[in-house]
Amino acid sequence: MDKAINPGIFKAYDIRGVYPEEINIDTAYNIGRALIAYTKAKKVAVGIDMRKSSPELEEAVVKGITDQGSDVVRIGLSSTPMLYFASWNLDADAAVMVTASHNPAEYNGMKFCRKGAVPIGEGSGMEEIRDLAIAGNFPDSEVKGEESEDLELKQKYLDYIAGFFKSGSAKKKVVIDFANGMGIIDKEVYEKLSGDVESVYMYDNFDGNFPNHEANPLKTETLAALQKKVIEEEADLGIAYDGDADRVGFVDEKGQVIPMDFVTALLAEEKLKKMPGSLILMDLRSSNSVREAIEEAGGQVHESRVGHSLIKKQMREEGAIFAGELSGHYYWEENSKAEMSTLAALSLINLINETGAKMSELVYGLKRYFQSGEINSEVADKDAVMQKLKDKYKDGKLSMLDGIKITFPEWWFNVRASNTEPVLRLNLEAKIKDLMEEKRDEVLGIIRG
Question: Could you give the 3-state DSSP secondary structure of residue 403?
Answer without folding.
Answer: coil
